[in-house]
Amino acid sequence: MTTRVFTSPLFLGFDHLEQMIERAAKNSSDGYPPYNIEQLSPVSLRITLAVAGFTMDDLQITLEDNQLVIRGRQTDEGHGRVFLHRGIAARQFQRAFVIAEGIEVKGAWLDNGLLHVDLVRPVPQPVVKTIPIVRGQGKVPAPTRTVDGD
């Protein structure tokens, strides 16, 4: 089901935002693995996933079209072990987070069954563009860019 958010003709070029919202709605249905999102500072975030039983080799993190995708796949090799009861399943997962343009993944680490992924949102510099007005249907000159405050 498609939900149109930016229906006003004044919102130009926001189609990609609607697609991101739809992707996020699809990805939010499964609750495994559980996760936290922390704001560490005004420009940094941390996603923490509970991935007990997974090793670094079992986990993969990729950035695909403004989507941070974290996959976990445990190999179900017994390594000679015989289970009398197996309550901890070797369950695979895929957890995706839609992130805004400009957000950078700074790093990830695994510690005591928790996978931490740090993100940073650089502070954008305000940009002012001057658009020249020309007479008639002549060639349109390129806009000039200046950084606000310079």
Automatic annotation (TrEMBL):
Concerning InterPro entries, the annotation shows: A-crystallin/Hsp20_dom, ACD_IbpA/B, HSP20-like_chaperone
Q: Which residues form the signal peptide?
A: none
Q: Which SUPFAM superfamilies match?
A: HSP20-like chaperones (SSF49764)
- Keyword Cell membrane belongs to the record: no
Q: Which keywords appear in this protein's UniProt record, sorted alphabetically?
A: Stress response
Q: Does the keyword Signal apply?
A: no
Q: What does the similarity note say?
A: Belongs to the small heat shock protein (HSP20) family.
Q: Show the PANTHER family listed in the entry.
A: PTHR47062, SMALL HEAT SHOCK PROTEIN IBPA
Q: State the protein's name.
A: Heat shock protein Hsp20/HspA/IbpA
